Every structure is written in structure tokens, then in C-alpha cells.
Amino acid sequence: MADVTSLDALAGGKYLLITTYRKNGTAVPTPVWVVRDGDALGIWTVAGSWKVKRIRNRADVLVGPCDLRGNPTGDSVPGRAEILDAAGSARYRRLIARKYGVLGRLTLLGSRLRRGADGTVGVRVTLTK
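^ that's the sequence the OP posted. Answer follows.
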């Protein structure tokens, strides 16, 4: 079971640094918005992004707190990422809008206008530590 303190700290921050891995094993860190999803973390991203492609190829990730530019502000912990279906992704959009307020809603609106409802997906990250 995941350490609730780590989960609370990671979900409570404004940004999460998620590190995914290329097929050759190279780590690729990316800052994203984060929400709490029960005993896991949730992120929202473009469906066709390289991040999503890397997660489909290799589900193990590292997650840790960071600032807007992706500079780590704490230790990373291992996790497993899972791409969500349309219903799960829609739920993450609502959670993002609630947590990030006006900026979150405007970002979601711009994304929906640009990419449509299926242009983004939710990613559930379960800590494995």
C-alpha cells in the first residue's frame, strides 16, 4: 500500500514531475498538474503526446514534487501509470477544473476547442513504494 503522507504531499502540490521512459531506457521528466484520485494520483494530458506513448510502452514511472519549470523540489517515488478510458478522463477534467480554478477551466476549454473531447486523456498513477 502506498504511503498516504507521500500521496497527500504529491497530490497537494501544484505541479508533479512525472518521469517516463523511452524504449532505450532514457528517462524523460515532464511537469504536469496533479489531482488526488483516492489512493492514486491523477494527471491530464494530450492523448497523442509522447508521454502517453511512452506510458503505453512502459508503465513504470517516477513521480515527485516540482516547480512550474520542472525543477524537482523533493524526492521522487516509483509508480505505475495507467491511461484511462473516456469516463475516467472526463472525471479527471472535472477534478482539474475544481483544483486549479479559473486557470484550470480556461485551459480545459481551450484544449476542448482545439482538440475536441477525445484529444486529452487522464493518467492514473499508483505509487508502488
